[in-house]
Write a structure and sequence with these properties.
Two copies of one chain form a homodimer. With 197 residues, chain A is an all-alpha fold. Chain A is built from nine helices and no strands. Chain A starts with 7 loop residues before the first helix and ends in a 5-residue tail after the last helix. The interface between A and B is medium-sized, with 35 and 35 residues.
Amino acid sequence: MQNARLTRDDVARAALRILDELGLPDLTMRRLAAELNVRPSALYWHFPNKQTLLADLADRIVTRRHPAESASGWDGRLRAEAFVLRDALLAYRDSAEIVSSSLALGLGENPAHARLRQALDSSPFDAESADRAATTMLHFLLGHVSLEQQRLQYDSLGARSGEPVTLESHEGDFRFGVDILIAGLRDRASADSPAPS
Amino acid sequence: MQNARLTRDDVARAALRILDELGLPDLTMRRLAAELNVRPSALYWHFPNKQTLLADLADRIVTRRHPAESASGWDGRLRAEAFVLRDALLAYRDSAEIVSSSLALGLGENPAHARLRQALDSSPFDAESADRAATTMLHFLLGHVSLEQQRLQYDSLGARSGEPVTLESHEGDFRFGVDILIAGLRDRASADSPAPS
DNA sequence: ACCTGAACACCGTTCAAGT
DNA sequence: ACCTGAACACCGTTCAAGT
């Protein structure tokens, strides 16, 4: 049972395992070290601190699924990207919270934003508006999935008042938000480009 | 210098003071107790735990400013409510994060959601759509202000790459999102009610 | 009713020293 | 280069006991 040398990758992957087995609150440096048969201080050779590790996880979670290519038009692509991102987030417990806080800390360019932004490259919006549109979508998306994941955990834990809150209802809520946003963007696009007045 | 008996209200108000003087990370039960010249365990007579205290703060922050009445139409009211909520949040440091996590924990009906929802009472949407619309707006709003507050703190702390990020640019981003959302809702409202096809 | 004292069971992080 | 040992400076929470 000799331990092979640890790589940065080993650490991140073990962290992801703990994350969706036990959830974010139980993803402590000490727990992670124990999982890797190593003393906690060893982790600080591979990552300068916990925040950096979490940012790395956020990247891995978001990058896992690749962009949807088939959709047509900037609106179709933006919509497809939003759904793919939601799927990617739903694959790991508490992922939305991790991505949100990494976004807030602003460590590097956020890949989730970059992908939504890219879908808008073929749109009639100027760079500033495209950025804002991507940000608006991202905020809605993270807020929605964050809440969805918390509800799932609460429900599985038993105690919840009233309705069971089905998966379909969550997807319906999500579709509603995405559709509203895209309809609003289409409206602005047609107001901006053909009639500068 | 005799200490008068502590009330629940005293605790909450001291917490709010610490919050916008030092920020959420420094709002610990031990620091709060010290501020009130009391031992940490004393706080647990007034609040069962820290989460409940934070939920109480979230309520106070959101309820501080009262709803805008003057706007006309459900869209005008929704827009006004969104701007008032943003103002209320900007009045306290890290408030968006507190409101978000209280929302996630789902302690009681969220007052922020209730106010956005109320603005939609006069809209043509059915109850489910109105709920979804309010939720969508809330997610965007909290995500936006959360990021805005983090950026403000980062900038004031010095180290930041590139642009200074002005207050106006944040307000522009916010207006953009709100306008897109409302345009999308108007679009759906006119598609739903007059032409069922 | 309201609070203290003292403990329990934890955290993230640093850093000299080992191999 | 990679890790241990040991410490530092903290957390939230509980609960018997005091007043």
